[in-house]
Amino acid sequence: MSTLTAHSGAVPTVLEFGVVGGRSVLVSGAADGAVRVWDPGTGEVVASFSVPSGYARAAAFVTLDDGRDVLALASGGDADDDADDGDDSGRVDLYEPLTGHRLVPLFESDELVLGLVATAVGGRAAVAAVCDDRVRVWGLGNGEAAVESAEPLAQWSGAYDGFRLPPFFAPLAGGVWDGREVLVLVVEEGGVGWDAREWQQTVLLWDPARGPAGRVVARFPLSESESVLAVGRLAGVGSRESGGEGEPIVLATAVRRHRGAWVEGVQVRVRVLGGDGGGVLPVHTGRFLTGAFGAVDGRTLLATANTGYFDCAEQDDHGIVLTDIPAPFRGSGEPVAGGLALGVDGGQRPVLVVGGDYQVALIDPVTGRAVGRTAIPRCDDYQHGESRGVAVALGVVDGVPLVAVAGIGHGVSLCDPETGAVVRELRRSPHSWSRFVALGDTGRRVLLPGRRAADARRVFLLAEADTSGPVTVWDAATGEVLGSVDAPGRLSALAFGMVGGRTVLATGHRGLGLVQLWDPVRGKLLERFEGGDAGLALGSVAGRDVFATGLGREVRIGDARDGRSVAVVENPGATVTCLALATVRGRPLLVTGDSAGTVRMWDPVSGRYLTTLATFARLVHEVAVGVIDDEAYVFAQSRAGRVTACRLHGGDLTVLWPARDEDPRRLGQGPGGPAGQGAAAVEPGVIRPDS
């Protein structure tokens, strides 16, 4: 990754890679009309000039019929497009890119030119532009005469399959699909989403050579409020993923980054159209970005420019960041965590389920070796936010171990933990979103509402929901919906547990500070208590049925019958993000993870700190506690998807895997420092910090 310091004091408006005389170059334009041509390998400025009016809005490098490499630049408009008296006219001119000399005006329009790309039609050099709510393709020949009065080779007004598409939106790019040159177009529709304040873009592949109006040959809807940042080709890779010969079409999008209910800037996602994989780039973030793909020395680069809003670092002050895109692209640097669950497979062997992007790993919890994987069903990647798994659960349904995978775009899938095959799919709608999932059972015969007494049976339960609720309760054995329960505010957690000898469903509600207990079969609210907004667990402490939930830097443990406080755990220095309760050899244990990346163990009876189990460089996403061969095992997953396993063997704490710690801080330290400084005494023969 490298940074070019460019356009100080002016917002970058366009980036485009090209090749001039066999030399890779990058052109950038700014809101003050300045244009610079760079050598992306050295970071040197090759040429500087200005557009005749307004500022540069789009660029394309074009090879003319006589072999010359020229730069087509679209310009026009005022720096403030929202001004009522702003100039909305646009134009396209040809330039000699290494000198900045303007060769010839190509065409003018009463509307702004939003996108520009070089293409070829019938073997002729051409340039395509988006303006006047349509796409036009112009032949260039040798670029010696203006073409504003000539008829375009092809134009398209946006009519598609009998209906009118939303307005076109920049950028515009070229690619190869099924062995044919196509144009990559983006349309945008506003006023979507539950509050009508979101937008949705769709990527279209348009073949301009198929008739006067061309033809749409493929379409890829994006998720709500996901914006196309750049489109290009992945250098050095065949394009079976893109449906034909040549280099695959690669897409970068800007997506708002969420941390709970808050939006913190954007992240940049990269994926191949029609292909698998993809990931998130560790580039700088800001309010809006401009980007472009290019090939330099046989490798693919993504250039991104921050517009200056919400700058996060000095390099974001209108600089251009160049990031390598490996082939095949796997992505790094952003959340891939998808939850943890511990249980057994069909052979009654212990198995740890680890959720993540596109697949769920099944791991031997003792050795850390992968024993299987199950693919997450993919409804429509581009419409449903990567169709990634965001929560997992493991349980036994009617005598058969099953993995429940909740994800964006596919509801919940029940999978065989040995083969990875999908056994049953549970969807509230064809493209339902599920971010929480829990498995449980009634433990005894119950009579479902509206059934005969003879139909009473043990019911295997599955609860799932999105953050906005409601919570849907299913019969996991039959796939029947049993009912739903209300989830006011934003849902933060789901959990099944036993209270007073019967199975209840607990729901946590972020922002409202509530914990609610439900009869999952009848959907009846049983209790409502004050709680927290991070994590939720049910268990038994000192003979009392309790619930535990995080609120800021505290864990509140309350009696599940009357809500009275049992204990309060004070986590030092960081917000609690997740927690788990378990009983090991008759002793209750509480495990917490926090926003500083620390995993700690506590005595839930007294609230005393026991030991630090693991440390991460990123926020702790989830923790799980289980008993294997009468020994306690603790598993923790960071926001980046890294998983650590600890075993409490006799009186010793052992980190089983991975072998290398993500953070060099010493395990076994006190909650606010080394052991002995604030650490409560640990009972001999049970658990003690590493010495």
Features:
four-stranded antiparallel sheet; mainly beta; disordered C terminus; repeat; 691 residues; elongated; 56% strand
Fold and architecture overview:
There is one protein chain. The chain has 691 residues and is mainly beta. Helix content is 0%, strand content 56%. The protein is built from no helices and 54 strands. The strands form 14 sheets. It has a 4-stranded antiparallel beta sheet with strand order 1-26-25-24, with no helix packed on it. A 4-stranded antiparallel beta sheet has the order 2-3-4-5, with no helix packed on it. It is elongated and about 85 Å long. Residues 145-149, 239-244, 258-264, 307-317, 330-335, 377-388 and 659-691 have low confidence and may be disordered.
Share in helix = under 10%
| Rg, Å, rounded | 29 Å
Largest sheet: 4 strands, antiparallel
> Would you tell me the overall average pLDDT?
76
Number of strands: 54
Structural class determined from secondary elements: mainly beta
* Principal-axes shape call: elongated
- Per DSSP, the total helix count is 0
Quaternary structure state of the chains depicted: single chain
How much β-strand is present in the residues? over 45%
| Uncertain stretches of 5 or more adjacent residues | 145-149, 239-244, 258-264, 307-317, 330-335, 377-388, 659-691
How far apart are the first and last residues' alpha carbons, in Å? 41 Å
The side-by-side strand order for the widest beta sheet comes to 1-26-25-24
